[in-house]
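One-letter codes give the sequence; each number marks local geometry. A record appears below:


***
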Amino acid sequence: MTQKTIFITGIGNGIGRALAIHYANKGWRVAGLDPDEEALAELRAGLDGDLLLVEGDAGKEAHVIDTADRLAEWLDGAPLTCLVNNAGIANPYAGPLEDLSLSDFQSWIDASLTAAFLCSRSLLPFLRRGDGGTIVNISSTRAVMSEPNSYGYAAAKGGLDALTHAMAVSLGPKIRVNAIRPGWIETRNWQKESQREKIEHREQDKAQHPAGRVGNPEDIAQTVDWLIGAGFVTGQAINVDGGMTVKMIYEH
């Protein structure tokens, strides 16, 4: 049986890092792209198995094309089981709209939405091998609700939701495409060692969530697992937020 393979953008830290560890522990071949070489070096040192970790920016066409060439050689004709478009700028806050430059706004779009387009386009031939693959786009609950001064981040994630259903319609039935909308997923303790923090959440942080806690990256990994196996699910955006977005919160 062909060993399953996953490619993760933004693999160095946070959700991407957790996904890399999750799938390496499952015995998958793990590949990914990230501009943070220090974080990639830590992953190489800490993970067993067959890895391809490429330093580069998923939002830059030349980097993605070069990565696809390296991935083709590494796969050696084997299919890609799943592409996770996880890359993005973690901090959503842009400040007042009147002070936001076009280049800064565009940086959010390129890091998430443009990156998902570029990587999906370049890796599609590998996903089409065998029985067909799955694309999972990491969107955000901010695609459908906002906090103040988060224009670029919200626009990028909203566009990613739309790209998800557009690709699902066009690439099916061979390729299924879905999105995950994380809510509050705690990633500060999932960074490279030099930036890792020990986290303790307040009771009011937990109480925002009907599930009774803040989320963690393993919650996202479990959802990716489910989407890979959910053969009749495509074109969907699934909130993974502990119920936070359905709870009415009043200021008193």
Q: What stands out?
A: The mean pLDDT is 93. The radius of gyration is 18 Å.
